[in-house]
Design the sequence.
């Protein structure tokens, strides 16, 4: 009996097990990218077949993101595969974006999302500087929010400067990306939706990585012996693992629900990212504690998960910021709507992407 | 039937039949309220066919899929339907009989449950057998007249004071150890050998009771002598499921009430209150998603019991100093009752500690804590 359920379709389950066994043997280098993005077309899962992709849905992309996240694959699968979905959506996939879509599908293009408040666009030119661009170091194209629009800017265009950062989490790059009158294509995609989809993918990845941390920890407790018995026989440790299992199972379910309810994306994007990143952080921290001294070494994998978890928690909305965003978009602080047919007061869940400015508490 | 049509049918029926005074009655800490009216309500529900929605049609149920059962719970909660008195018969004994009962037993007992006329209670826990259920001491002996007579004490028996029958787990083979030699007996409550004493809970009210059996005569047994443990584990397995889903819709109402109170009391500008409310809302969503993902029951139990308890704490914190006062005759507000009653949520139906043991062992495959004694149970 397992404690969680991925809720995969048969095709998704097959994709998951195929990716898991491939990634177990992959070194995460250039050859891995070539096989994964090129031959297997993982980043093109959400790209329409007319542009060379698999034409699958967000659910399949999430399987790839989860499996890459589980092993902290140091390749831009999340951002590139999501770019395939965003650029491949109806009304966005056309002659202007087609070349990039085809490149994502055949593994020749790597993408990164740029969400900063200081970016503007005018007359097809993008200007501004954004820090903490995840997967930005090796990106060939940037999907840049300017106002409510999403612009496609090639990294090689004049006026684009990419400064690679040293990062706490060495398995995912960050860059400072500067645009000075750089040529950009208005994609027609909704930047707000793209940002929430990115949050959902970070949630998916966090839940998967947290599951891996717990798996490894439980295996360790089964084999490590002290006081003449396996550590996993001590109730103090068993109960902590059980609590972590509850967190992981609920994080997996929450990420899955956010994927399955696109109409609630405005609320479930920040909600899933906050909840899953918090769970990931807690499980990674417990992973080190439950491994004892070995968990504190550079050689052991624990610290890489701890650093990825904290990085994910702090970027694209801190836990406190996202909690506020959820409350605001759900209308918790603003309006109570009485529904009076039976005399019962019911809460009306309001969800919009607009109207972020407010003076709410917390 | 189409789901939305079904939903409309339930909604219309509740609007026409639910007495206004029963709306919201009988919830946690209010189980003593309007008992006669709620017993009558069980019969109203039964007559209209709202009991046993998921039971097979051959056994008098409606054979509805899980989704439609969930719709019923959703609408019931939305309308503020009162706390059920008949749920132990409908959700515990009934399904147990469907699994283990003879055709004759099903014919005899199921119609009364479906009609809302026969109330049941569950006699499992004892003073010395809580989490360790297999350690129970109640005994039943077979008389020369061929009838089983029960002696012993049960405890935490919900609604025993209103029940017509009790299904009692008792030891029938005194040479067997632990979970061997137990049997599940059907005992009429209204007889000389049965004494019900309400337990006054920390809420000042009584849902739970002690039940004393002294030579009480049983009138039937589920399964054969010695099958009791198998039957009891079957009951515990059905104890959750769709009812948990319905319960969460009640949680949404409770959350909304706490939020409304915070708003009315001008507490929303307090960043601590605002953050806790937002966290409660987020975790309620997570709880809903996790339940829908059909996780193992212990995961759901740990999540909802802890969530509910925290909501109760938030409720009195939102009230502020006025939460420290009680009304005449220890009359409490909904928030105070929520705060107090939720201390039980993490104990009954398998304490959180037992749930963690189950997850560790069966979900994660961690080794047992200590080498098992001969015949020791895996009780949950």
Sequence:
């Amino acid at each position: 009996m397992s404690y969680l359920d991925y809720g995969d379709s048969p095709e998704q389950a097959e994709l998951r097990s195929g990716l898991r066994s491939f990634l177990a043997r992959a070194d995460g280098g250039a050859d891995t990218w070539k096989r994964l993005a090129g031959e297997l077309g993982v980043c093109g899962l959400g790209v329409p077949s007319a542009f060379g992709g698999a034409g699958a849905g967000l659910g399949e992309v999430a399987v790839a993101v989860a499996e890459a996240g589980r092993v902290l694959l140091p390749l831009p699968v999340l951002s590139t595969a999501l770019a395939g979905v965003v650029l491949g959506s109806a009304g966005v996939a056309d002659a202007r974006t087609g070349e990039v879509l085809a490149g994502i599908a055949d593994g020749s293009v790597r993408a990164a999302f740029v969400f900063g408040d200081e970016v503007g666009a005018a007359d097809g030119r993008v200007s501004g500087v954004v820090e903490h661009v995840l997967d930005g170091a090796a990106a060939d194209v940037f999907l840049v929010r300017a106002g409510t629009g999403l612009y496609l800017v090639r990294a090689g265009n004049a006026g684009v400067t990419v400064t690679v950062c040293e990062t706490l989490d060495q398995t995912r790059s960050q860059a400072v990306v500067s645009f000075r009158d750089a040529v950009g294509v208005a994609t027609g995609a909704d930047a707000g939706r793209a940002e929430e989809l990115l949050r959902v993918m970070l949630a998916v990845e966090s839940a998967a990585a947290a599951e891996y941390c717990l798996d490894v920890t439980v295996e360790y407790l089964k084999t490590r012996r002290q006081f003449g018995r396996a550590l996993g026989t001590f109730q103090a440790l068993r109960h902590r693992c059980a609590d972590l299992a509850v967190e992981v199972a609920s994080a997996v379910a929450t990420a899955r629900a956010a994927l399955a309810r696109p109409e609630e994306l405005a609320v479930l994007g920040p909600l899933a990212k906050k909840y899953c990143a918090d769970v990931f952080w807690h499980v990674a921290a417990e992973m080190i504690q439950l491994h004892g001294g070995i968990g504190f070494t550079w050689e052991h994998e624990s610290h890489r998960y701890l650093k990825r978890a904290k990085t994910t928690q702090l970027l694209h909305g801190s836990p406190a910021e996202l909690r506020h965003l959820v409350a605001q978009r759900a209308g918790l602080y603003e309006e109570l709507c009485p529904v009076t047919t039976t005399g019962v007061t019911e809460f009306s869940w309001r969800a919009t992407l607009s109207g972020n400015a407010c003076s709410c508490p917390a | 039937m189409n789901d939305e049509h079904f939903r409309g049918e339930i909604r219309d029926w509740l609007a026409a039949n639910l007495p206004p005074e029963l709306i919201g009655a009988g919830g946690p800490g209010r189980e003593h309220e309007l008992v006669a009216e709620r017993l009558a309500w069980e019969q109203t529900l039964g007559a209209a066919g709202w009991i046993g929605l998921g039971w097979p049609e051959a056994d008098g149920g409606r054979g509805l899929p899980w989704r439609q059962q969930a719709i019923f719970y959703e609408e019931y909660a939305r309308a503020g339907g009162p706390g059920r008195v008949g749920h132990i018969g409908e959700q515990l004994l009934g399904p147990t009989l469907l699994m283990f009962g003879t055709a004759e037993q099903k014919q005899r007992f199921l119609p009364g449950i479906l009609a809302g006329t026969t109330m049941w209670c569950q006699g499992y826990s004892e003073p010395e057998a809580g989490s360790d259920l297999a350690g129970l001491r109640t005994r039943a002996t077979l008389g020369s007249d061929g009838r089983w007579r029960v002696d012993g004490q049960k405890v935490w028996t919900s609604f025993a004071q209103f029940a017509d029958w009790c299904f009692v787990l008792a030891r029938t083979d005194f040479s067997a150890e632990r979970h061997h030699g137990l049997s599940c007996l059907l005992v009429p409550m209204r007889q000389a050998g049965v004494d019900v004493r309400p337990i006054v809970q920390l809420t000042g009210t009584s849902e739970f009771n002690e039940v004393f059996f002294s030579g009480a005569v049983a009138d039937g047994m589920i399964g054969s002598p010695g099958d009791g443990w198998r039957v009891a584990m079957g009951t515990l397995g059905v104890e959750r499921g769709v009812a948990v889903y319905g319960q969460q819709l009640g949680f949404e109402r409770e959350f909304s009430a706490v939020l409304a109170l915070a708003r009315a009391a001008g507490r929303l500008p307090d960043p601590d209150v605002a953050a806790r409310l937002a966290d409660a809302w987020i975790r309620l969503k997570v709880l809903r998603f996790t339940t829908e993902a059909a996780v193992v029951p212990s995961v759901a139990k740990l999540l909802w019991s802890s969530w509910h308890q925290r909501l109760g704490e938030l409720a009195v914190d939102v009230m502020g100093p006025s939460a420290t006062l009680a009304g005449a005759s220890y009359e409490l507000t909904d928030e105070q009752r929520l705060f107090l009653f939720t201390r039980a949520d993490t104990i009954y139906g398998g304490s959180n500690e037992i749930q963690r043991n189950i997850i560790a062992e069966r979900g994660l495959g961690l080794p047992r804590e200590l080498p098992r004694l001969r015949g020791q149970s895996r009780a949950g």
Summary: The two ends of chain A are 41 Å apart (CA to CA). The longest strand of chain A covers residues 125-134. Confidence is low (pLDDT under 50) at residues 335-362 of chain A. Chain A touches chain B through 52 residues (CB under 8 Å).
